[in-house]
Amino acid sequence: MASTNSREWRAVCEKFRQAQDLSEIESRKDPENDPFRSKYKARELLKEIHCTVKNFEVDDSENEDRETDGQSGEHGDGEAINGGVHQVHTGDSRAGLRAAKLGVVDYHLGVNHIETEEFSAGEEYLMNCMKLLDGCTVTRENVSLFIQVRNQLGILWAGRDETETAQGFLEKAESIYTHYMKEDGQPPLDLVDFFVLEEDAPSQQERIRRFEMAYTHTLYYLAQVYKNMSQYERAGQYCHSTLQRQLKFSQFVPLEWAINAATLSQYYITKTRYMEARHCLAAANVIAGLAGEVPSEAAAKESEVEYEKREQLGQKRAEIARCWIKYCLNLLQDAKKILEDNIGELDLDRQEELQRARRDEEEEKERGRKTTFLFDSADTFDSICSQEEKVSCICPLNFEEARAIFLVGQSYVTQAKEYFEMDGHVTDHIEILQDHSALFKVLAFFEEDLERRCKMHKRRVDMLEPICKDLNAQYYLLICRQLQFELAETFYEMMDLKLAVAEKQEQPDAHTIKKFNHLCSASIRYYQMFIDSIRSPEGKFPEKLEDDLLRPALVAKFRIARLQSKIITGNLTTQLENLSLSLESYNFVVQYCENHPEAKKSVETELELSEEMVSLLPMKINRIQGRIASSN
């Protein structure tokens, strides 16, 4: 092998450095019409290096027989410098070193071809690297190469949707790292060490950083693989480990890390693991703050760079805010599920029982926190804890606790809307408004005062109704349907609340009756708008409803029937008209289910009540008709 001071070896190292610069730095400047120019130049240099190393290998083979045992003994158990790599002189290790050197070049050629979208050629080079390593024991000289070549093959096969093949390469890389750290644990050599002069070699600290980064990539790719295999529990664990390691070794881009942490929180929410979800979101807030302040609007107008920074920071922080909204909303909704009775009202006995158990639960949560996988970076831990203290991770049991969570969610609604404005972000803006409405809806569940509950629902109407009226159904049909149905439901809930208030009065006054009838009419109007949106352009209602519209459409018809029968009027003719329309809507539900028996499961309760009303209403209608006839 050429000496580290030989002209030939210095030339090899210089070519390797140039190839790296071309791939990692110069390639960013390549023109759009020749995007791989620098990559191709790097490839030619790597091929030249490959030929040179092969020639060195031939020379080594000829000279190896003439080496004596005394040469290796000259340094005792110490290390001699061989081609830029610190290597013990033994026959086996020299063979392994030659294999590793060629393997490093094959690895870089493989990555080069993949980056230029020549995937089959890239795979061939990577597999050549694997073959060279087949006969080698994992050592501190080659362990990085063992892991990184498998990482690249894992990425390659994942890109082909061959998930199980990718999984095999990546899990092997993981096991190699784990075994090496257990059995050896010394800072291993980096791939660059094979083609660098001694004076330019990376420090031990830098070698450790690069090695740990390679393993972090292994975990990151495994998280994606497990997600694609629907192994969401494992995917979440590996994602969390990746984020933890990135923070620990300072291997992250703040905004990217923050978004990944916020996204992971949404997985924990689905598992009702609110402590972990809150921790992810608190960490996301803190790390996103490391990206700097959002430039002012004036600065953004003056500079394109400042404009792009303002856009990026504004968008990412708004996305994190939306994850916080989901956190607050889901925590409240899960609390509601725990506390509601069989008719959806607050179960006071259950509430009292849970409040008694709260103290023990809090103590258990505190113990559990100590075993939770935390982002325990010394630089950020206190800031993350400070963020966590602003909102609970325990299901609220009363209005005060629910309101505290609601207010946090509402503050993030305001923050998210600052970026996702209606002008330019229609869908996102409306989704945020819908979440805001849902926050009010679930908060109302905890409110015992019926009038105050009614006012909370009125807030929902005030935020959604203007949007619903202005939105063009031709372009936003699905959103329009969602808004129409939600507004209909909201007015329906307000009607039920007003009815409950009226029943407490001996004789409702004219104002109460007028308000009650207005709520009925408004709910009917929006349910009817929803139903009409399902009709064909010719106004014909479909004979068979699509699966996603089946229950909403039949529920809308059922509720229209109920609302029409609830309208208060002293005029017998108007009452007769309302009851006839009510019967017609009840009949629609019954008839549809008779024609499509598979629909019955979707509306069992509504169908049962509709069948009952279809048998009862005709008698009531006949009595009113008789009264009208006798009065005439």
UniProtKB/TrEMBL annotation:
PANTHER family: KIF-BINDING PROTEIN, KIF1-BINDING PROTEIN. Residues 57-89 are annotated as: Disordered. The lineage of its organism: Eukaryota, Metazoa, Chordata, Craniata, Vertebrata. SUPFAM superfamilies: TPR-like (SSF48452). The keyword Coiled coil applies. Gene3D superfamilies: Tetratricopeptide repeat domain (1.25.40.10). Pfam families: KBP_C. Keywords: Coiled coil, Cytoplasm, Cytoskeleton. Belongs to the KIF-binding protein family. It is found in: Cytoplasm, Cytoskeleton. Residues 68-78 have a biased composition (Basic and acidic residues). Residues 58-67 have a biased composition (Acidic residues). The keyword Glycoprotein does not apply. One of its GO terms (cellular component) is cytoskeleton. One of its GO terms (biological process) is neuron projection maintenance. This is KIF-binding protein. Activator of KIF1B plus-end-directed microtubule motor activity. Required for organization of axonal microtubules, and axonal outgrowth and maintenance during peripheral and central nervous system development. Its main location: cytoplasm. Residues 329-371 form a coiled coil.
